[in-house]
Design goal:
Layout (H helix, E strand, L loop, with lengths): L7 H21 L9 H15 L3 E2 L12 E4 L2 E3 L13 E10 L2 E10 L5 H20 L6 H14 L3 E2 L5 E3 L6 E5 L16 E4 L2 E3 L5 E3 L6 E3 L5 E3 L2 E5 L4 E3 L9
Antiparallel strand pairs: 1-4, 2-4, 3-12, 4-5, 6-10, 7-8, 9-14, 10-13, 11-12, 14-15
Helix pairs in contact: 1-2, 3-4
Bound molecules: 2-amino-4-trifluoromethylsulfanyl-butyric acid and cobalt (II) ion (2 copies).
């Protein structure tokens, strides 16, 4: 399977899908407070995506995933299933939104802090966001994916944190997960060279402790083996003729 270079028409549809995914994260932000359950966050996002956006929540029934968003709390790395858990002051949570509009996917996630959080929590959130920004800013035609992975890994490890290797960014379009795999670690000069019209996510998962992870018996929720905190941010990125465009960035907002 080759990497699909998007046409201008497809790229416009990806802009719309990306914008909608970003809007869900903005909409849900004021609800992320002590006492709310991750099920309630899921329900609010589900209803908004269906009713207001007239779009489809991509995770729902994706390979059997039972909910419309992923909610990963504290030492949960990714793919957390919303449930009865109520958020407590001090928790950190990644909310990962993927919507399908007109057949095309937009995928973005960010970290939220619940009440006052620890120094270590703030630090892992900051470092994982720096990793995403470092990766995004490198995107342009000709650069190799291994250059990006290397830079992300180097930043995380220079801060004595670690990069999860089992999960990666991905091409995205008509399919949720397309080629290429976008590793958040690697060696300069390796991997494919980027071309204008490619669209993929960058979504580094950074652990405060060791990089190793395991999957819970629910078969989805990924946690750190050493139960250290983990944080992740994700954007969907278009390779342009001279750089990048973040498709999941709202106008007037930062990356
Ligand atoms: N949104 C996740 C990603 O960034 C994938 C979630 S798959 C699901 O690739 F089934 F867990 F929803
Ligand atoms: Co993704
Ligand atoms: Co995602």
């Amino acid at each position: 399977m080759a990497i699909h270079i998007k046409t201008p028409e497809e790229t416009d549809k990806m802009r719309i899908a990306g914008h909608l995914a970003a809007e869900v994260l903005e909409m849900i932000a004021p609800y992320v407070k002590p006492g709310i359950t991750t099920n309630e966050l899921d329900q609010i996002c589900h209803d908004y995506i269906i009713t207001v956006q007239q779009a489809i929540p991509a995770p729902l029934n994706y390979h059997g995933f039972p909910k419309s968003i992923c909610t990963s709390v504290n030492h949960q790395v990714c793919h957390g299933i919303p449930g009865k858990r109520a958020l407590k002051p001090g928790d950190i949570i990644n909310i990962d939104i993927t919507v399908i509009k007109d057949g095309f996917h937009g995928d973005t996630s960010k970290m939220f802090m619940v009440g006052e959080t620890s120094v270590i929590a703030k630090r892992i959130i900051r470092i994982s966001h720096e990793c995403l920004r470092i990766g995004i800013k490198m995107v342009k035609p000709g650069i190799h994916l291994g250059d990006i992975g290397y830079a992300i890994q180097r930043h995380a490890e220079s801060c004595n944190t670690s990069i999860v290797r089992e999960y990666c960014g991905h091409g995205i379009g008509l399919e949720f997960h397309e080629e290429p795999q976008v590793l958040h670690y690697g060696k300069p000069g390796t991997g494919i060279a980027l071309e204008p019209g490619m669209i993929f996510t960058i979504e580094p998962m950074v652990n405060a402790g060791k990089r190793h992870v395991k999957v819970l018996p629910d078969q989805w929720t990924v946690i750190t083996k050493d139960r250290s905190l983990s944080a992740q941010w994700e954007h969907t990125i278009l390779v342009t003729d001279d750089g990048y465009e973040v498709l999941t960035q709202l106008p007037g907002h930062g990356i």
